[in-house]
Fold this protein.
Amino acid sequence: MKNSIHIFLILVLFLGQSCKNKDSKVINKLPIPTVTVVHPTLEKIHDKVQINGQVVYLNKTNIKAPISGYVTRVNTKLGNWVKKGSILFKIQTKESKALQDSNLAIDENFGIIPIYATISGYVNLINITDSGVFINEGNPLATIVKSNDLVIQVNTPFQYYDLLKVNKKIEISLSNKKIVFANFYKALPIIDPVSQTQQVYFKLIKHKELPENLNVIVNLQTKQKPAVITLPKDAVLTNETQNEFWIMEINKDSLAVKIMIQKGLENNGKVEIVSPKLELQSLIIKKGAYGLPDSTKVKIN
């Protein structure tokens, strides 16, 4: 009986040792995480405030009917660029129309009044699209906007007004992710009593055709630091409440070590690292650090 118990215990110990060896082999075969690294950089960085804006055309010219009569010709379409002095419409007077209907022999141009474009620009509104329509004197026919009078209109909180004086080249973000630059043009000398905002206009440095009412974002620079240590935003990790921030630095033993940091300014995908002071030759994980435990052996891609 005792021999049977001894044999049973030996088998249990043998099986246990075998399982332990198998587990060790499994652990040893776990792949080493592959990561992408970057070096900290020394560069200038600035902070900015973003304000919603809109594309508008300041100068709009309304083309109106100088007389009452019948529109005999429409010589333009919506969106057309017209030159100053070109004929947009022709209107026939009621008297001329009556004589024409009576089959009297009259000159074909008798009583026909041409309507000219008073400025060069784009037709952004057209009220009469077909001939034969009767129109009263003073009724609008079309609206022309001067393309070089395009501005970015922003309702700016008054607290940011002083920033307009120091921002010589203002960055405008378009909805298609493109960037254009503008200068401060002018501000209306009145504040909205409810929102306490002031209507401000910016003119593009390099002219670009943009549709009216296009929503844009105006970036006003608030602070600038000439030489600080920065890292790409992807290299900075945070918790769910975003009240703690850290990076993963690789030491000489290829271990990824967690380092708590204090952030500074953020701009254009860059983050200022206020503390601790990082060396420019340090290796910081940019990709592959998410969920990585402290002091994990890694392989650099």
User: Anything to note?
Assistant: The first helix runs from residue 2 to 28.
